[in-house]
Amino acid sequence: MMQTCPLCASPDTGVYHRENERTYLRCGHCTLVFVPAGQHLSAAEEKAVYDCHENRPDDPGYRRFLGRLFTPLVARLPPAAQGLDFGSGPGPTLSLMFEEAGHRMTIFDPFYAPDETVWQGRYDFITATEVVEHLAAPGREFERLVAHLKPGGWLGLMTKRVRSREAFAGWHYIRDPTHVAFFSESTFRWLGKRFGLHPCFPADDVVLLQKG
């Protein structure tokens, strides 16, 4: 099975893993592992999964989880920075945490907050927590996110990273039917070179990329 990579558009892709009815391809150029488009859920099926999520702003455990990205990112921001939470979900919480820290926030979610006017501005920082693994067209989305990031701004991402083929085969993360794109550290380093971003990795599932 061959398919163009949805991140870098390279045709250099091959089978990385197969399980049940899904095939996982790996790009030889940017190292993204991805599920072919023909095996993705429909938009309605995808939203039905998200509707079952029970993430609430008043849940201390959820706030601690988001703190893995919030804590290292907030320490790098200037006062009263303008941020965008991309893929804010049905219970926006990270945006509230940044507002409580004195920053100004806008949210966007294609299902729950589809306000396209957010793309009229540029931001000091953009966050996406447990979002990029859901992207069917990550190359297009990263191009848009970087375009709306100010010079010196930060792109903060939370997603679990691919470690090895052996670990991938037993990984619970790939069994979520809404997860279709899987990034490794080398994928994020490729992204940095492609878009002029400088990556750092403060946690196993967090990457911060600063726009040069």
UniProtKB/TrEMBL annotation:
Taxonomically, the superkingdom here is Bacteria
| InterPro entries (alphabetical) | SAM-dependent_MTases_sf (IPR029063)
The record's annotation in Pfam families points to: Methyltransf_23
**Biological process (GO) annotations?**
methylation
Molecular-function GO terms, alphabetical: methyltransferase activity
Q: Write down the Gene3D superfamilies for this protein, in alphabetical order.
A: Vaccinia Virus protein VP39 (3.40.50.150)
Q: Which UniProt keywords apply?
A: Methyltransferase, Transferase
Return the protein name.
Methyltransferase domain-containing protein
Lineage runs: Bacteria, Pseudomonadati, Pseudomonadota, Gammaproteobacteria, Oceanospirillales
